[in-house]
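Appendix B: complex inputs.
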Amino acid sequence: MKKTELMAKQILVTGGTGYIGSHTVVELQNQGFEVVIVDNLSNSQIEVLDNIEKITGIRPAFEQFDLAERDKTDGFFQKYSNVEAIIHFAAYKAVGESVDKPLEYYRNNLVSLMNLLESMKKYDVKHMVFSSSCTVYGQPETLPVTEQTPRQEAESPYGNTKAICEDIMRDFCKANEALNCIALRYFNPIGAHESTLIGELPVGVPNNLVPFITQTAAGLRKELSIFGDDYDTPDGTAIRDYINVVDLAKAHVVAIDRLLNDKTKQNYEYFNVGTGDGYSVMQLVKSFIKVTGVELNYKVVGRRTGDIEKIWADTSYGNAELGWKAEKTLDETLLSAWKWEKNVRGLS
Ligand code: NAD
Ligand code: WQD
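Resulting structure:
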């Protein structure tokens, strides 16, 4: 990618103060893109903008509103007429909460996407990258999963919003040949920026494994519960494909380049974004202890409802088409998560 090609392209990053969004804004700005963030701060803090500025030397433009509100979304596109592409991260993402509050999840995640798609047509914005998830595969029958692996019925309303959003985009692109959308199916994003200025900051008790580990190591939680050691895996604990968040952020820059420079093969495409390697919960815990040298209290408990046994990505199609590959090791990624946690908690 030539830097000059990328100057003056304005990219709308929805959910840009969130975990993956903030890392992506940094990578976009490092590549010379001009960014405008829209976020309603329902799951992130405004101070993230200061930290993006500290890392990149540039403060992105920022607008705070709810993308599920049609008139506000309209107002945004009237004000920002230079937006050429959208990266749409903004969504609710807590699987358990979505079971208790399905309508909130459907409204937020589906209506936001539909408002943006309508705006693309109305304001002539041709390109979108959408945050999908490996959750659309459920428990696949064969591993690793390729993009051709059939999707399965979602385990949760959250997961269902991702499948429905993919379908909405597919259908909308079919009806509108001038539009181009790419859905990226993330596997399990973990880790933090090497500066330790941005990272994952879950509200309340973390649901995800790595933030729970780092909070336990930092003394905020008494002990990590490992959910199940009776799975059909080498050590009995569940297997996932953990992708470094900076690697994941870079995949978005590559996807934007593909869209803006007309490299797409169809006007709706989707790619797995993982490392291609599966690690068990126990392997991850042991790696964390090894690379950080910290004590970690843990015990094995029963399986967590709704969890799948094992999944990891076949990344060959995405690697070949996008010219992108995850680079960071699990060890360095876990270390980055720990450095971030220590920084947030003021630990040395
Ligand atoms: P996050 O919660 O940190 O970021 C999402 C951001 O969107 C937040 O800052 C939130 O305030 C904002 N937001 C939510 N609804 C909004 C609305 N209606 N209007 C404006 N802003 C809104 O989440 P994340 O981990 O960075 O995830 C980003 C995207 O990636 C989400 O779509 C998520 O579903 C998807 N995803 C995440 C993971 C993961 O494990 N983190 C895995 C697969 C897919
Ligand atoms: C990983 C492994 C747990 C916490 C979720 C969403 C999915 C996607 C990514 C957005 C599992 C085990 C966890 C703990 C544990 N998000 N674990 N003790 O479940 O793969 O996926 O995030 O799209 O949709 O469902 O990620 O980090 O919660 O769990 O033993 O305290 O760690 O059982 O095997 P998961 P996770």
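Residues 102-123 form the longest helix (22 residues).
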